Amino acid sequence: MAERGGQAAAFGFQYQYLVTLEELLAAAKGLRPGVHAAVIEPTETDAEGVDDPDAIDFDLVDGDRSPVLAAQVKSGGPGTELSAPAAFAVLMRMIKARPSAKAYSLITNMRLHSKAVHLNRVLRLTDPHELQQQLAALLERSSRQEENAKGLNHDELLRLRRARIVPDTREPHELREQLRARNTIMCGSS
User: What's the predicted TM-score (pTM) here?
Assistant: First the structure.
């Protein structure tokens, strides 16, 4: 059992760093305007009174080191599913830990539960009041997350509207091969 747990943890770290590398390469190609660097595993939050250094896996930052994108990477083995309450909990931690981010991404290779897919659509609502109502209704079966949704203030709702769940259906070998190909193209070597 411990071997499987260790393998899962190793895969999770590998996936997280491959995704981070992919985002850095996208920034280097100019696909992430304004990004100058990445801060991997930031240990500080920029929110007063919030001590949650594990809320963010990496930040893409501009020239002033302000976060353009705050990201959390969640991985799972074959058949694992990300529920709406679990996804919402991750997003809540992110918006509270990094209120100055222009965007938030929860990147995952897990299959999204249908309600997590719906959550991703709800996050696009432009009216904060409607967003809060829809979140509470969507999360009603998870009393803790329903209460969290009802307790969001106006600024937190505006931040949450900048958050997205980014499903990644690629197998690890596909991600590695795509990164190798991008690197070869960028470096001009074979």
Answer: 0.89
CA dist 163 and 113 (Å) reads 18
* Structural element, H or E, at residue 90: helix 84-97
Question: What pLDDT shows up at residue 37?
Answer: 92
Q: And the tokens for 146?
A: 């329903």
- CA proximity to 93, closest of 41, 160, 48, 166: 160
Question: Hey, what are 188's tokens?
Answer: 């001009």
Per-residue pLDDT reduced to its tens digit, 86-133: 999 999 999 999 999 999 999 999 999 999 999 999 999 999 999 999
Rounded to whole angstroms, the Cα distance separating 187 from 103 reads 29
First to last CA, the chain: 41
Q: Is the dihedral of CA 92, 97, 102, 107 positive or negative?
A: negative
Sign of CA dihedral 127, 133, 136, 137: negative
